[in-house]
Amino acid sequence: MSSATADATGQQPVVAVLGTGIMGSAMARSLLRAGLEVRAWNRTQAKAAPLAPDGATVTDTAAEAVRGADVILTMLNDQASVAAALTAASDGVHRGQVLLQSSTVGPDAAVELAQRAADLGLVYLDAPVAGTKQPAEQGALTVFVSGPSAARGVSGPVLDAIGQRTLWVAEEPGAASRLKLVVNTWVINMVGGVAECLNLAEGLGVNPQLFLDAVKGGPLDSGYLHAKSAAVLSGDLTPSFGLTTALKDTRLILDAAEHSGVRLDLTAASAVRFERAEAAGHGDEDMIATYYAGRARESDGG
């Protein structure tokens, strides 16, 4: 099925997923559960291999993954990774394919990638997502999309499979990425708030459960507070949103803020904490490992 006929025939689009890390693999499984054909590629093929038993076709090359697909979904770390994947896939792309670019790259990079996509004849959708591992596994992400409305038909089944809600922001690329930075600012500073409350409870000898009980059910409560606190208190820091990735996103936010004349003191402080936690060896853990940046001995290198 070609991109031009996907919506008209009512057939499900074939999707090539480039990038099968924490988020990409979870999104691929959501697509498979929805009955879509998925071809999966990752630079390190071992990360894509576990998708084969779920029904995905794991390919040796990016070009093989995208050849004949209707939608190309990229979920990679940064602009350079997306650009490299597009270069690797270039021999397999055809004009009119939709590129659903879901990596968090920032608005300027989104515009640059849109031009790269246009050079390849692809229809570019700037489509970052809000949500971490669990909602990605459940197909419950929120997807922010900016791009041509003509692409809604073929991309619709993909967006419905990976997300509980799609918010169409604008026609021009970069608009969805701008919104994603605002949302991530809220997430990053909320995580920092959780970490610092737990740090202070520890320092003052307050049982952290008393703090959680004090806010439970009231206007200060949130599911995020309990989920991230549970990760720290249990010692299970399996990443749903990795700390090093959070630091990358924080730097994108601060760069965008500087260029727009906005000062973000809390976000700048979050970046410093992430840097300290990463230097202490917590980069591959969940972003709530910023908690360790507030423990005196670790912060001082002791």
Structural summary, described in words:
The protein has helices at 3-9, 22-33, 62-66, 79-89, 107-119, 133-137, 152-162, 175-204, 208-215, 223-234, 243-259, 265-282, 296-299, and strands spanning 15-18, 38-41, 57-58, 71-74, 98-101, 123-126, 129-130, 141-146, 163-170. With 302 residues, it is an alpha/beta fold. The protein has 2 domains: 3-171, Rossmann fold, CATH 3.40.50; 178-299, N-(1-d-carboxylethyl)-l-norvaline Dehydrogenase, domain 2. The strands form 2 sheets. The protein has a 6-stranded parallel beta sheet, sandwiched between helices. It has a 3-stranded mixed beta sheet with strand order 7-8-9. β1 (15-18), α2 (22-33) and β2 (38-41) form a beta-alpha-beta unit. α8 (175-204) packs across α10 (223-234), α8 packs across α11 and α8 (175-204) crosses α12 (265-282). It is globular and about 60 Å long.
Q: Quickly give the CATH architecture of the largest domain.
A: 3-Layer(aba) Sandwich
What is the C-level CATH assignment of the largest domain? Alpha Beta
CATH homology superfamily name of the largest domain: NAD(P)-binding Rossmann-like Domain
Low-confidence stretches: 1-8
Overall shape: globular
What do the pLDDT scores average to? Answer: 94
Tell me the number of strands: 9
Helicity, as a percent range:
40-55%
Number of domains: 2
The CATH topology of the largest domain comes to Rossmann fold
Alpha carbon gyration radius: 20 Å
- Structural classification: alpha/beta
Strand content of the residues, in percent? 5-15%
Assembly type: single chain
N-end to C-end Cα span: 60 Å
Sequence of strands across the biggest β-sheet: 3-2-1-4-5-6
The SSE string, one letter per element, is HEHEEHEHEHEEHEHEHHHHHH
Largest sheet: 6 strands, parallel
Please count the helical segments. Answer: 13
